[in-house]
Amino acid sequence: MIVCFLYPRLELLAAVGDRRALLSEPVALAPEAGRPQIVGEVTAAAEAFGVARGMRLGEALARCPGLKLVPPDPDGVRSLWSSALAALEDIGAGVESDRPGQGFFESRGLSGIHGGRLEGVLAAARRALAPALGRGVRIGAAPSRFCAYVAALRARPRRDSEVVVPESRAREFLARQPVSLLRSRPELLEMERILARLGIRTLGELAALPPAAVAERFGHPGLLALELAQGRDTPLEPRRPPEPVDERLELPEAASGPQLEHALELLVSRLLARPERRGRTLRSLSLSARFVEGGTWRTRVTLRRASADPARLRIVLSPRLAELPAPADWIALEVEAFGPPAREQARLLAERDPVEARRARIGEAVRQVRQAAGEDAALRVLELDPRSRLPERRAVLAPYPDEGGER
Question: I need a surface site. Which of 8, 49, 184, 234 has the fewest CB within 10 A?
Answer without folding.
Answer: 234
